[in-house]
Amino acid sequence: MADRSEMYNEMNDRSREVFRRVVENYLESGDPVGSRTLTRTLSEKVSAATVRNVMQDLEFMGLLNSPHVSAGRIPTQQGLRMFVDGLLEVGDLDKDDREKIDATLGSNERDVGTMLDRIGSALSGLTHGASLVLAPKHEAPIKHIEFIHLAQDRALVVLVFADGHVENRVFTPPKGQTPSSLREAANFLNSLAEGRTLAELRFKVGHEIKVRRQEIDSLARDMVENGMALWENEGQHSERLIVRGRANLLDEEADTEGLDRIKNLFDDLERKRDIAEFLELTEEGEGVRIFIGSENKLFSLSGSSLVVSPYMNADRKIVGAVGVIGPTRLNYGRIVPIVDYTAQLVGKLISDRS
């Protein structure tokens, strides 16, 4: 933002160094940074009183904050944003980190979901945050659809794709379904499905239901419409948003307020809320993006940061995303290259399999 760059340009060398040192110390320790600590690390020899005056000016500018009376300072969300945009030094991916990510591919797993789950677990382990991996939708044409009655309130849909991929999803059908209405719904869908992807079938089904509404039994129609909604929203038994390492977030927060925010995040993740919005966060171009605190509109947890990068298929189309979510006190300089490398790796793997 222009305001931040203007603010940074107005700061003198001493103010910039004090600001940078406060943020770096905070990101490393998580503790407020005091003037006496800074006097030992600054490039020029100045008194603690001089440093305190500089910190007060930075607080007046909205870049630092005092969490307690007479304590040190921590960066505000605005301060972290300025640091990330203008002062963050992102190095090359650490050799050990690269080897640990590459090691997830050792088994040459053919199933994309299993592969992405393993990559997500490695990502959360490396970053000590929660990893988010948005898997691509399966775009192969459909070969066959079948509904299987399990209980009064449970049914199974089996999707067989032309490339041999099979998905099974348990869901709650509309009330009043019978085995015959399940068969009628499957027959109707199979008459339209061959050669079409799920997205294409959704469009075709909507059109056909309008045209042939009188011909389709009402129970079967409810079943079709309910089933298509299930495929659109992705049931829990076929995750698109793979979340691993949530326990890492609990380790970072000890106070009641922090635990409440973490609980809200868990609730959002359990509901797979706004999966499409997670992908939209990345669609303004390639590369890693960082969302700090309330900038992260995806989740109700405002005291978090999201580092996210899209990945592309062989046609250079964005089909998914990889990210890490954690407290605002993330080691951005290390996590950014990890997320970037992981996203590029996933893109290559998806392209190789397509």
Automatic annotation (TrEMBL):
Gene3D superfamilies registered for this protein in UniProt: 3.30.450.40, Heat-inducible transcription repressor hrca homolog, domain 3, Winged helix-like DNA-binding domain superfamily/Winged helix DNA-binding domain
Keyword Repressor appears in the UniProt entry: yes
Cell inner membrane keyword on record: no
Domain Heat-inducible transcription repressor HrcA C-terminal: 115-336
InterPro entries linked to this entry: GAF-like_dom_sf, HrcA, HrcA_C, WH-like_DNA-bd_sf, WH_DNA-bd_sf, WHTH_transcript_rep_HrcA_IDD
Signal peptide annotation: none
Name assigned to this protein: Heat-inducible transcription repressor HrcA
Source organism of this protein record: Pseudohalocynthiibacter aestuariivivens
